[in-house]
């Protein structure tokens, strides 16, 4: 507009003085503006890594942990102004549970069990899932199974039929739970198989299964699997099983368990929560 009108005309039109306008041009950003700029720079840096999946609540806790004083509303406003959103999950979710079988089904013992008061003391929840991988021009499925107990999870990734048995054996080796452990799962054929039942009997563990067609009975594990698929694997498709195993190891053991804040744990990571629990 300065090409068409003089500065005097513009100042008179907008009812400001020329000295006031020039003072405004030379004015330094306010303390709040400077703080917002630092916060935005930190948010953008965090979103270059695994934290790209964070929405405003978790991003706020991450920034507070780094020494910044900020509120969730402030972070939400900054993210909205610059088009930053939490990473959305893919819509397509394949069915991984085959409950159409004649094998023995355990009752839902977890519903009558008190909440666990420590790691491996009351029960664990398991769930299989699959993820596409790209082999040449062919899309194939890469299966994995998680075993979570209290706050920490252990996982294998194989393509054989003994997926669940391998996951439970890994959990047994690494955590050594006592007899009487309640192992909760859905009614999939993997958990009702003779191999799985034999493994539970050998270790003195007790089987528990969700009601038919009710994933909410195993909601904690279903939620964990969903977060791992969305936040650890994201939209990157591994080329083969070795690449998938490496991606899962780095994502779960290096970030999800070690660093990712969980709202159910007071925005602590699983490892930090378990360490604090053991100290108390």
Entry keywords:
13% strand; 5 strands; elongated; 11 helices; 5-stranded mixed β-sheet; alpha/beta; 280 residues
The chain-level structural class is alpha/beta
Largest sheet: 5 strands, mixed
Terminal Cα span: 68 Å
Low-confidence parts = 132-143, 149-161
* Oligomeric description of these chains: single chain
> Total strand count, please?
5
Mean pLDDT across all amino acids = 77
Rg result = 26 Å
The percent range for strand residues is 5-15%
In one word, what is the shape? elongated
Helix run count: 11
Looking across the biggest beta sheet, what order are the strands in?
Answer: 3-2-1-4-5
The SSE order reads: HHHHHEEEHEHHEHHH
General description of the model:
By secondary structure, the protein is α/β, with parallel strands linked by helices. Helix content is 43%, strand content 13%. It starts with 6 loop residues before the first helix and ends with a helix.
Short synopsis of the structure:
By secondary structure, the protein is of the alpha/beta class. The protein is built from eleven helices and five strands.
Topology:
Blueprint: H1 7-13, H2 18-26, H3 31-46, H4 56-65, H5 72-81, E1 123-135, E2 138-149, E3 152-154, H6 163-175, E4 182-185, H7 189-192, H8 194-203, E5 206-209, H9 219-233, H10 241-256, H11 270-279
Helix pairs in contact: 4-5, 9-10
